[in-house]
Amino acid sequence: MDGFSLLVPSERRSSSRIALLLGIVLTILCFGIGCGDFCLFCDEEQNPCDPDPCANKENATAGTCTAVGDSDYTCDCESGYFWQGDDEECVDPCIDDPCAEITNAAEESCTGVDADEFTCECDDGYSWDAQENECKEVSGDVCGDLKTCLKGCDAVDLVCQSGCLAAGSACDCDIDLYNPPFACGISCQSQCDLGPQDCWECGVDCVFDTRCP
């Protein structure tokens, strides 16, 4: 017929084979190198929190999943447990009571700080060393050592600060970092205006200089 071209049966079969082959190639590409925005075989958006993986994780709290990129996520853990991203699980660093195997540390005194960190209570005359995970004999100016340790921490690094406080537990000073004297706090205002780290270091100096003998 004029104006139309008809495919004979063999040509239709050839076109179908080409379309099928093209679909197979696209599918392999999607699964082999990841789906792009153009891929017809993939979801437009990937959400690692749907369905909620935390609901099936032991010691994790259901409904607390937070997506990290397209495939990773975190869960909030029950008290005493911490999220271990590499294994995607909530772990208790004190589950096997590591303090029982540490010289001069009290058994069952472990306190978790993070998924891979903990502190132990030490015998009299010893203090916890968070860097070495051991109880070291107390010597010298413990209060001065604690002050130096805290000033070396970042203002928002609670793990570092907790390690210093645990290591300085034998200090006789009346340390109260969260309630410094009012007058001392006013004297740090100029440093606080410079930034949180300057404010933190001034606050540490303030507390030790005014509360310790």
Give a written overview of the molecule:
The chain has six helices and eight strands, in the order αββββββββααααα. It has 213 residues and is an alpha+beta fold. The protein has three domains: 53-91, no CATH class; 93-172, no CATH class; 174-213, no CATH class. The strands form four sheets. The chain has a two-stranded antiparallel sheet with strand order 1-2. Strand 5 (111-114) and strand 6 form a beta hairpin. Helix 2 (142-151) packs antiparallel against helix 6. The N and C termini lie far apart (108 Å).
Residue-averaged pLDDT: 76
According to DSSP, the number of beta strands is: 8
Instruction: List the helices and strands in order.
Output: HEEEEEEEEHHHHH
The computed structural class is alpha+beta
Q: Report the span from N to C terminus.
A: 108 Å
Lateral arrangement of strands in the main beta sheet: 1-2
At a glance:
By secondary structure, the protein is of the alpha+beta class.
Helix/strand layout:
Elements lengths: L8 H25 L32 E3 L3 E3 L7 E3 L4 E3 L19 E4 L2 E3 L6 E4 L4 E4 L4 H10 L6 H10 L14 H6 L1 H4 L3 H16 L2
Antiparallel strand pairs: 1-2, 3-4, 5-6, 7-8
Key descriptive features of the protein:
3 domains, two-stranded antiparallel ribbon, 6 helices, 8 strands, flat
